[in-house]
Inverse folding.
């Protein structure tokens, strides 16, 4: 269904572009000769315009790519730090929870002086 809608949209876009071009040429303020010259100049400038646009898009893509990579690297660093902190806190919590239980089961000779 979405392919059909896309096809209808593109067909309408092309049809509207053709109709708009024809109407624009018919109501142009200059003569036919002037309009043809203007179209020739515009067509001659089109490759240069396309090249400029392509270069600009490539520069923007490179800038965004570099920014995304920097953000990704920073996110990975923060994630590694968070994981390390979480593991350390978990280990400390486990030591705190299991230490009294282990010491209660030790023979009297192995307990520290403070606990006796």
């Amino acid at each position: 269904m979405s392919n059909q809608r896309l096809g209808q949209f593109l067909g309408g876009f092309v049809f509207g572009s053709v109709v708009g071009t024809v109407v624009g040429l018919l109501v142009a303020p200059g003569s036919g000769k002037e309009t043809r010259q203007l179209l020739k100049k515009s067509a001659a400038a089109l490759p240069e315009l396309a090249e400029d646009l392509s270069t600009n898009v490539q520069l923007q893509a490179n800038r965004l790519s570099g920014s995304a990579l920097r953000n990704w690297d920073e996110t990975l660093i923060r994630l590694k730090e968070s994981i390390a902190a979480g593991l350390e806190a978990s280990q400390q919590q486990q030591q705190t929870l299991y230490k009294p239980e282990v010491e209660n089961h030790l023979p009297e000779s192995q307990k520290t002086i403070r606990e006796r």
Summary: The mean pLDDT is 79. The CA atoms of residues 59 and 102 lie 64 Å apart.
